[in-house]
Amino acid sequence: MSTHKKPIKENLFDSAKKFTDAFFDGLKSNTINHALEKAKKNKSMPVPVVQKMKELDKAAKELEQMLKDYE
Fold this sequence. Notes:
By secondary structure, the chain is mostly helical. The chain has one domain (2-70). It contains 2 helices and no strands. The chain has helices at 2-42, 47-70. The chain is elongated, with a radius of gyration of 19 Å.
């Protein structure tokens, strides 16, 4: 009976970790998108800076996907 409890507990913690990781990744992504939109709208940042921020955000997402595919 003890062999069944451990995997269930581990699966529960794995699921909780995946959920919290996804939640905070979503917050981070929304914050980045909001900052980019605000900078474009208010013209508080020069266009080349905003463009570079977009490129970096895209590159980070591509790298994250590549790492997920590698796992």
